[in-house]
Design brief:
By secondary structure, this protein is α/β, with parallel strands linked by helices. Helix content is 47%, strand content 15%. The strands form 6 sheets. Strands 11, 12, 13, 14, 15, 16, 17 and 18 form an 8-stranded mixed β-sheet that branches. It has a 6-stranded parallel β-sheet with strand order 3-2-6-7-1-8. The protein is globular, with a radius of gyration of 29 Å. About 9% of the residues have low confidence. The structure holds a DNA duplex.
DNA sequence: GAACTTGCTGAATTG
DNA sequence: CAGCAAGTTC
């Protein structure tokens, strides 16, 4: 079967053929990573005679898993296989393991456990905060859930978290108590949150030799995709699974690590060779995806990061067209521009797929509107997914109860939906009773319906009604197919009737969504046939990125969601300081580097055409704010950019010599000059000559200042002060008023200054005079800011 | 007990 | 600006 390998280059072939022992594939963007993985699986089966069910491939999203499955099937051709390789996400792999063996953990969980998504977790956290008597203003449920999740991901349980709380830190002490109660409640509800899926699976492997042996025997060849995004739990999981055999192949690219904030540990990939001393390393450095120009832009940006493995991506592709740049007056104008350009491109080539990539989901709305107005069909990833719609969640809650009636979150959600006369008072009483007896809400329902417990006859009969509905569903779940139970959950509960009675358009569309849910279940029955249990598990584990449709002409999504995808035409929008890079990242170097990797990911999605845009004004929180171009624009070689803006733009400004020097100066300040020198199209930028020229022009004083600045960039120099607690995404138009220290005229270009928010900076430019004098100041790490001298509160540094 | 109104606060990225 | 929670009214 030589034709399997014939489509691959030499490195790729090596990566496929090195089947035995640990292997690290460092796969640069667009280097044919997925092809290598899929061919490798096919090769293992066809050439090495490995039984398919002995192969495990792990991905992060269902979409990636599904694509991989399809491609393997295609590669193997018509061959009938005795079994199939398991291609799964980390989370569904864990669910599989736990559904089989969770009882062996002896932590009180049974195999019919429920999975809580983030929304469910927050609800539980909220109830814990309330019941502990904390103020949910001071202890925001969302934040608290985030803190708990973060702790769990770093391997802490409630007790070890509590032990680490400093004596005086009341807030964290409160979180620790919430954490403890939260964990108890999950056990009581027989529920696991997303983090638990990994935690319990790892614990199971650690604790039980027999389980470990079973999986080591089963999975003889393991592949892990996007290895740079694995966290310590995922690492531990892989570690246990490869305990006996070391046939583990991990594929990743540390330049595309963008989930550090979620606990991804980049050292997993950086130290792979230490973890597996026998490891072989193969680098895939030829990019097949993008034009030379796009690759140059990406490369120039990522080179500003200090923390990276050395790897040079190259391509045999043509230079292609320049990166198109557009500065819009406001966010609406930016959206109009994008819509117009998409139309233009698609008129020339109707098959051209486009993506609009933004930093935050909130940015999507304007693009949706503009595209709709332009009559362009689009697909949106993220935001409200199908399974997040209230009506779908309601029905899913009924189904969850059918499988695990002790799930109190699900119970509370639907006990009075549709309304059946169970108001706040009754539920509070029920809740109190459950707490008194130390039982689940479902058991409390049972007690009240048999003993009365002093509840009003009306309440008792309503509860009885609810009870019989759930019992009916429980019975059905045991013998009927998923779609049958889904239908029952919509009809027998009175849910559909209540919607019909509303007789509104809104209700009509909800009914349609529920019909969709039924369709999904019917499909599931036909394809997987795993029953309601598996259907609900799958529904709980769908992710935003799973919504991506490969054939959609236009896709709107975050840059995060775009990882792993490619498009001939890409728009990176909202390239503004504070938005991208995000203001929350500005305080820490490591976070800034992650933002930069995100920029790298976004740029390298583009195959042929790349547009970068930003707006001068944007509404944030309903407030009009002025914004500056992103420093990432500044980090692209300006020669590669073509300015499509109307009138003067930041780019035209940057291209005149003084601004170019400003760029150099900013780099000098960050001590970054020596490594950055590089040639683009025969022209040099960042040349030592022009920096020298710059200093000659500015005179001796500046050279001295620059030298001082360079010193302050040393590691032992005092760190710049942290930003204020609430940094707005952009600087307020008109400037923040504060004490005016200046007597005017002090801050000529070249002066080093100190700003209350941004720390040290260098004045690049001065416009106007007197009270209206405006300064352009470059702050290392914050980019350039335009400040009104009078209000800026600047001091000489 | 349910529908409506006001007022407040908060959104970075995700399985 | 928008979504949600508490308060207000029927």
């Amino acid at each position: 079967m030589n034709d399997l390998l014939s489509t691959l280059n030499e490195r790729q072939r090596e990566a496929v053929a090195a089947t035995e022992g640990p292997l690290l594939i460092l796969a640069g963007a667009g280097s044919g990573k997925t092809r290598v993985i899929t061919v490798r699986i096919a090769y293992l089966i066809a050439e090495r005679g490995v039984a398919p069910h002995n192969i495990l491939a792990v991905t992060f999203t269902n979409k990636a898993a599904q694509e991989m499955r399809e491609r393997v099937t295609k590669l193997i051709g018509g061959q009938k296989l005795s079994s199939a390789p398991l291609v799964s996400t980390f989370h569904s792999l864990c669910v599989r393991m736990l559904r089989r063996d969770i009882e062996k953990l002896e932590e009180g969980y049974t195999r019919s456990f429920t999975i809580y998504d983030q929304d469910d977790s927050v609800r539980v956290v909220k109830s814990c905060i309330k019941d502990l008597g904390y103020d949910d203003q001071r202890l925001a449920p969302r934040q608290t859930q985030g803190a708990i999740s973060h702790a769990k991901n770093s391997g802490l349980d409630a007790d070890s978290y509590a032990a680490r709380v400093e004596a005086h830190d009341e807030k964290r002490a409160a979180i620790a108590r919430v954490f403890k109660l939260y964990e108890e409640r999950l056990v009581n509800n027989n529920a696991l949150d997303f983090d638990d899926l990994l935690i319990k699976a790892v614990r199971l492997l650690r604790k039980r030799e027999d389980v470990r042996a079973y999986y080591n025997e089963r999975f003889r060849y393991i592949l892990v995709d996007e290895y740079q995004d694995t966290n310590s739990l995922q690492f531990a999981l892989i570690h246990f699974l490869t305990e006996r055999q070391q046939n583990v192949c991990v594929v990743g690219d540390e330049s595309q690590s963008i989930y550090r904030w979620r606990g991804a540990d980049i050292s997993n990939i950086l130290n792979f060779e230490q973890h597996y001393p026998e490891a072989r390393v193969i680098k895939l450095e030829q990019n097949y995806r993008s034009t030379q120009t796009i690759l140059d832009a990406a490369d120039a940006v990522i080179k500003h990061n200090t923390e990276r493995k050395d790897k040079t991506l190259w391509t045999a592709n043509p230079a292609g067209s320049p990166v198109r740049y557009y500065q819009a007056a406001d966010a609406e104008g930016e959206a109009r521009f994008v819509a117009a350009k998409i139309e233009e491109h698609r008129r020339a080539d109707p098959t051209l797929r486009a993506a609009v990539l933004y930093r935050t989901n909130a940015q999507s709305r304007l693009f949706e509107e503009a595209l709709r107005r332009a009559g362009i069909a689009y697909n949106i990833v993220g935001g409200f997914s199908f399974y997040e719609r209230a009506e779908v969640r309601d029905i899913v809650s009924y189904l969850k109860l059918a499988l695990n009636p002790h799930d109190s979150v699900a119970l509370l959600r639907v006990v009075n939906t549709p309304t059946r006369g169970l108001g706040k008072q009754t539920l509070d009483d029920l809740y109190a009773r459950a707490k008194d007896y130390g039982v689940s809400l479902w058991e409390a329902v049972g007690i009240v319906t048999t003993q009365g417990e002093g509840f009003s006859p009306r309440a008792v009969s309503a509860l009885k009604k609810f009870q019989s509905i759930i019992e009916g569903l429980v019975a059905r779940a045991q013998k009927e197919s998923a779609s049958e139970v889904v239908k029952a959950a919509i009809l027998d509960t009175g849910y559909a009737d209540a919607l019909k009675a509303e007789n509104s358009e809104e209700a009509e569309s909800r009914l349609e969504n529920l019909q969709e849910l039924v369709n999904a279940a019917v499909d599931y029955d036909a394809e997987e046939g795993g029953g309601l249990r598996d259907f609900i598990d799958a529904a709980a584990l769908v992710s935003d990125t799973d919504q991506y449709q490969m054939d959609a002409p236009v896709t709107l999504m975050t840059m995060h969601s775009a990882k792993g995808l490619e498009f001939p035409l890409v728009f990176i929008v909202g390239m503004e300081d504070g938005l991208f890079p995000h203001s929350r990242a500005a305080a820490e170097q490591a976070e800034m580097e992650e933002e930069r990797r995100l920029a790298y990911v976004a740029i390298t999605r583009a195959e042929r055409f790349l547009y970068v845009t930003h707006a001068m004004r944007r509404r944030v929180y309903g407030e009009e704010l002025a914004s500056e171009p992103s420093q990432f624009l500044n980090e692209m070689p300006l020669e590669l950019l073509e300015d499509l803006s109307r009138g003067a733009s930041w780019l035209s400004f940057a291209r005149n010599s003084s601004a170019t020097e400003a760029r150099h100066t900013a780099r000098v300040l960050r001590g970054e000059t020596s490594k950055q020198e590089r040639r683009y199209g025969g022209k040099t930028y960042d040349s030592v000559d022009s920096i020298a020229e710059f200093f000659r022009q500015r005179g001796d004083q500046i050279s001295r200042n620059a030298a001082a600045a360079k010193q302050s960039a040393q590691p032992d120099a005092p760190r710049q002060q942290p930003p204020p607690a609430r940094t707005k995404a952009t600087t307020r138009a008109g400037g923040a008023a504060s004490s005016s220290t200046s007597s005017g005229g002090d801050f000529v270009p070249g002066t080093h200054v100190k700003h209350p928010k941004y720390g040290r900076g260098l004045v690049l430019r001065r416009e106007g005079a007197g009270d209206s004098a405006k300064l352009t100041v470059s702050f290392p790490g914050f980019g350039q800011k335009k400040l009104v001298e009078k209000y800026a509160g600047l001091e000489k540094a």
